[in-house]
Every structure is written in C-alpha cells, then in structure tokens.
Amino acid sequence: MIPPPDSLLRYSPPVLVCRRTEKRSPGVSRTGRAARGRRSARTYRALLSPQAPRLQASPSALPPPTGPVPPPRTAAEPGKQTQELLNAILPPREWAEDKTLWVQEVSSAPSTRLDVVHLQEQLDLRLQQRQARETGICPVRRELYSQCFDELIREVTINCAERGLLLLRVRDEIQMTIAAYQTLYKSSVAFGVRKALQAEHGKSNMIKRIAELEEEKRELEAQVSDQKAKCEAIEKREYERRQIEEKKHTEEVQFLKRTNQQLKAQLESIIAPNK
Q1: How much is the pTM?
Q2: Strands across the sheet with 100-104, in order?
C-alpha cells in the first residue's frame, strides 16, 4: 500500500506498530477504527457536554475526599488526554508497507502565529500547484480547504477542547449539508435524465403520429382530387348534354314553325279560290 500523501493537517512522525505475516482485511480494520473513533468521540462529547463537569475544575469546587487520597496527576496526563481527544476527532492514518503496519497520529504540538501564516501560504501554494478552480464546484479545492479546516480544528482543540468539539460539530454539519446537496444533485440529474428519456420516447411517438397524419392527409387530398375530377367530368358531361338538348329543342321548334307556316300557307291557298 502506498503511504498517504502529504496533507495540510499536521501529523506526528509515523510509528511502526507491528510486522504482519498475513494480509489483514482492510474492511475489518476500517470498521474497527471507525467504531473506536465513534466510541471515543461520544465519550469526549459526553465529557464536554454542558451537563457534564468541566475538564479542569477549580480545587475549591471539588468536594472533599472521603476515601484514600489518589495520587497526584502527572504532567503527561493532560497531554495524553489531549492526544486521545485529537485521535477521536481526527483519526490516525494507517498504511501497510513491506508487510509492516505504520500509524501516524495527529500532532498535539501547539501552533504559533507563524504556523498559521505558513499554513495559509501552503494552502495558496497547493491550490496553485494542483490547479484548483477559483469558482464553481472543484473537488481539489474542497479537499484542500477541508484539510486546512481540520488543521484549524487541531490547533483550537489543543488550546480549548470545548471549542474544538464545537468546530467539529460545525465541520460535520457542513459535510452533511454538502452530502445532502450532492444527493439532491444526483436525484435531480436522474430525474432530468428520466424526463429526457420520456420526452425522447414521446417525441418518437409524436413523430410517428405526425407521419401517420401526413399519410392520411395525402390520402384525403388524393380523394379530394378524384372527387373534383369526377365532379368536373360530370359537369362537363351535363353541359354537353344540355347543349345537345337545347340544340335539338331549337331545331324542333324551327321545324314546327316551318311546318306551321307551310300548313298556314296551304290553308290560305285552299281558302282563297273559294272566294
């Protein structure tokens, strides 16, 4: 396994834990570390809650001892307690190299103003080196700022555990909000893709329906053309028949007029000699 890359979060020098002859399941180790981290975090949250007693109570506020007096606390105990709290907030890094397990805990050394200035310079430098985007969504910029925020939590926790736990709550809330927005974005993308597929399917159906209607329109136009042609042929045939009938009627009238004139002339010729 490749050692973890450099981070803006300050770590102590790595410590060799054990030499492994068999490869341990990574899922089990991660699960164990996560369970230990959750238990430690819950323990320290319970200790530092408003209802719980303060970590450093004044001697006058403590009740008088009723039993045997415990031995005085050594100077290493506050540092150990701070290191345990840091390990609960920021879990140590573990990696395997050449069948050996290495662990690197978060540093418990306090930071000065120069360290904060150096952190800012390192943040700007890594943003430039990794070509992080200045605006918009950028995983690189988010990763670097998360590391910077973890380093600030470490520095604040060393000076004040309560303030560090409060910053931890702020960080967790920000991460939950970002995760919610990511889920919303993914669901909206899936919804958009689904609607696009439905629109594409509806578009193909509409195209098919339009083709059917256009074909029906062409058939109806052909029928209209046929009916117009038939109507024009009938009108032409009726017009010719009417012309023939009128001509025949005119000829018959003329024939009857001539016949009438002839009969009238014959009648007059018959009547005239008798006078």
Answers
A1: 0.54
A2: 15-19, 100-104, 93-97
